Every structure is written in structure tokens, then in C-alpha cells.
Amino acid sequence: MSEDTFYIVPEPTHNQLVEQAYAARGFDAGEQACAARFSAHATRHGIRTHNALKALHLDDLFGSKKGGCTPSAKIEVIPGRFSASEVWNCNKKLGQAVAYQAIDRCIELADKHGIGQVAVDQAFHYLWGGGYVMEAAKRGYIAYTNCTASVTEVVPFLGSKPTLGTNPHSWGIPTTDAIGFPVVIDWATSVIAMGRVQQLKREGKNLPAGAAVDKDGNETIDPHQVSALKPFGAHKGYGLSLINEIMAGFIGASKPTLRSNHLDDGDKHTPNFYFQVIHPEAISSNHFAFGRTQPENLRVVMEDILAEGNQDCIIPGQFEAEFAKRTQAAGGLLFSENEILEFNHIATECGGEAWSVENFPKESK
Hints:
CATH superfamily of the largest domain: Malate/L-lactate/L-sulpholactate dehydrogenase, NADPH binding domain
Distance between the termini: 16 Å
Largest sheet: 7 strands, mixed
Shape: globular
CATH architecture of the largest domain: 2-Layer Sandwich
CATH class of the largest domain: Alpha Beta
Number of strands: 11
Number of domains: 2
Number of helices: 11
Helix content: 25-40%
Strand order of the largest sheet: 2-3-4-10-5-6-7
Low-confidence stretches: none
């Protein structure tokens, strides 16, 4: 069956199973709600590499079952002297819950100071950074986040040993008034994310060339043979990935290769996050050509970039916006048959109700 054939799963049905899965692992009601909210948000926008299946797979490998994520952990705000900045010790709290709180806190700080930032130490991975900055952008703010990945699975440029994470960068820009949706620039610093490898494995598809290597360091397109990933753009992606590791080092991270090796050795083994939100008024000169307002000026800039000859260019965030419209038209979240089968494994584990493909209508095109 083609991976483009989707079945429509009601969002409440999805959220109920996701919440049950997290409840079975000991997470509290607030964390369950954040996990379901995030997974639905990712799926709604077509981010199949970071849906609930990915989230629970990460928890299986490195989280609550392995000592890397502590249900109901409390966030500690570390005292500091900078009024627009906070640093949090999250005590291995679920990353989705941390990220939602962090982006909200950054917005509060930006409303007061024009800019706000939160640096996060000792948390579990937050998955798709683009989802958090997208929500901030829809609320009218410029937002940025980066994180270190759960494990080091990327080889440095000209290297052969994976010592970097996929280490994504994510920007959200409030451009809805100008182009109809927020610009969301979100990418892993590897050619593809490991979640994409897992998706291709589920769907029986090959990787693009130049994306990964096998255990012997040879390039492979077989998702079953992938041992490590390669940085995109050679030295450029490598440099961007390095930024995340260095930022994490400033925040409080230890050696990258120790992440998710949760040993009782006195060291640190968790990812780090960085969030920043800017209020658009804080960077406005209030002096735009022909007396334009800031939103009007943004529209002119975008129209000039996408002038005749460029009108078919893809804008970052466009695919997500178009898939969100597709989801809305369908009236539910869209999943492939293979994904539904994977959700049934989760239902079996947590005692939830299994999904039957026959109970869900196919998406009409």
C-alpha cells in the first residue's frame, strides 16, 4: 500500500491512546496532555518523523524505562541576575512538557523586555522543535530553539565516529499576515533525521544517497543497515551541529557521547535546550519606506523575493501549512496503515483499545 494512502483517525481517539500510553509509564495528567497535544500537532502538520510513535520509541530507548526521563519531575529555576533570561534544571522531566512551559515563559519575558530566553539543563528530548516556534509565531512572535539530540549518531565532517547529535535548529517567524502562514525554518543538521530512517524502514523505502553510513563507515541507502548519519552540506551542517553542542556546554551539558548512557557515574547524560523569543516591536526601526507598517513592509519583502520567476518557490513552513489544511479538510489526523499497526502495539502495551483500519475512512482526494 502506498505511503500516500492515509486513514482518518479522530484526534480525540489519538489523544486518548497517547495519554493512556504515557499514564501507563507513570507520567502525570499534565505530562500526558502535553505529550498528546504535541503528537497531534506534529501529525496535523505532516511531521510523521516526530509523531507519537517516535516519542514513545524514544521513551522506550532512553526515557522512563532507562532512567533518562522522570515522570512528574519538577522544574527548578536557577537564580540569576538577568531579568530577561532564565536557566532551568528540569530534573529529567518530559521534554514536551518542558518545551511548552519554556516557550510560554519566553513569550512572557519578551512581552516585558522585548526579548526573552530560557536555557534548559537536565531534560528529556522535546522532539520537533519546529512545533514550539510555530505556535509562538502564530501568536505573533519571532521564536528560536535548538537542542542536543538524545544520542550521538552523526559523524563530524571528514570524521568516521559519530560524536554529534542530529542537533536541530528551529525558527518561527510571524508572517501569517504577509503570506498566510508562519515561516518555519526547522532542520536537523544531518542530511536526514533518524526519525526519517525509522519512517522509511516502516514503509519499506530507501534513504537518499549520501545520508548515512553502515557499521563499517560505508555509505548505505538501506534503513536497516544505518549505523550513523552524515551532516548536511558537509562542513556547513557540521558547523551548525557544533553550535548546539557548544551552547549545551555553556548551559551545563557534559560529553556528547555520554548522552542517554544513564550510568551511576556522577556525570550528566541528558539533552539541553535553548529557547529565545523576540517581540517584533523590539527590533522595529519604525521607519519603513513610504510610511509602511511593519507587517506591510514584511509583505513587500516577501513579494519581492517571490517575484515573477520565483513564484513557485517553496517557502519554509509551506509544506506544514498545506498539510494542516489537508488535515482540516479530512476532519481528523492522517495515518498510514503501517502507522496504525504500530499504534496497536502501543495499545496492547498500555491496555488501550486497539485501532482497526476498517473503522477509519480513507482520505478522499
